[in-house]
Design brief:
The complex is a heterodimer.
Chain A: H1 7-29, E1 45-54, E2 61-71, E3 78-80, E4 92-94, H2 100-132
Antiparallel strand pairs in A: 1-2, 3-4
Helix pairs in contact in A: 1-2
Chain B: H1 25-36, H2 51-78, H3 85-117
Helix pairs in contact in B: 2-3
The chains are: A alpha+beta, B mainly alpha.
């Protein structure tokens, strides 16, 4: 039994938002990676959330879960640079499809969501403390 | 201005429903369930058992288990097994609130005991 109401719900949301920030940082770090793990240019990853029923708290409260991390299949730019070690026969290099502006906005929204969930936890603790102070 | 009677009845459960229409039944059932389990000081007197003692023992066990969970979570973060710092902090909050609740309950019990003792014979 959780005294702090929906702390497991908030915990799941914090986990999910943290994963989103991690994936965004991975995208930004690999923004210029022309040869990824599979040999092709790096494809940016996108995180999808889904809600799950949190049975432990009863009441049908819905937590959040990362349902899948899939790669964005859109093609990046093709840059002509014959001196590049990863250039193909025509001298073109396939760049990753990471748009820095998109990634920065994603990171900002994920950070704000994380902070909003932290505010929920802080409020829940304040409620509990004020309820306990009734008897003092 | 939408008259309340024109809102379909099955839309009252959403978050957008007006506050007066939201269904608080689940919350009411939960609080009455807490009362029945004897968590308030109105616990019924059992024959030959010590209700205060058992209640305090139950509380101490629960607080102890919460503290163990919190210590385990902190260990996981310290050893690097888990990168979720917020889980450890949440578990710490939980155990601290539970501990404060137990201390308040103990204060109330001691106070009522002293009240009884003060009665002139």
């Amino acid at each position: 039994m959780n005294i702090l109401g929906a702390s497991s719900i908030t915990g799941s949301a914090l986990d999910a938002e943290k994963i989103r920030v991690d994936i965004t940082s991975q995208n930004i770090a690999n923004a210029n990676t022309t040869k990824g793990i599979d040999g092709k240019a790096y494809q940016r990853k996108i995180v999808a959330f889904e809600s799950i029923l949190d049975a432990a708290n009863g009441n049908g409260l819905q937590g959040v879960r990362v349902s899948e991390i899939f790669a964005d299949q859109s093609k990046g730019e093709l840059i002509n640079n014959p001196q590049h070690p990863h250039a193909d026969n025509e001298g073109n290099v396939q760049m990753p499809n990471v748009n820095m502006a998109f990634e920065m906005v994603d990171m900002m929204t994920a950070t704000r969501s994380y902070e909003a969930n932290l505010a929920v936890v802080r409020n829940a603790r304040q409620l509990a403390n004020q309820a306990l102070s009734i008897g003092r | 201005m939408i008259p309340i009677s024109s809102i379909p009845a099955n839309s009252f459960t959403g978050a957008a429903a007006p506050l007066t229409m939201r269904n608080f039944q689940a919350d009411l059932e939960r609080t009455s369930g807490l009362k029945e389990s004897g968590l308030t000081s109105g616990a019924s007197q059992g024959v030959g058992e010590d209700p205060f003692g058992t209640m305090m023992k139950k509380f101490v066990n629960e607080v102890d288990s919460k503290m163990k969970v919190s210590a385990a979570e902190h260990n996981k973060v310290m050893t690097g097994e888990s990168t979720n710092l917020h889980q450890a902090v949440l578990a710490g909050q939980e155990s601290s609130v539970a501990f404060t609740l137990m201390v308040e309950l103990r204060n109330k019990l001691v106070e009522s005991y002293q009240e009884l003792m003060r009665a002139q014979v």
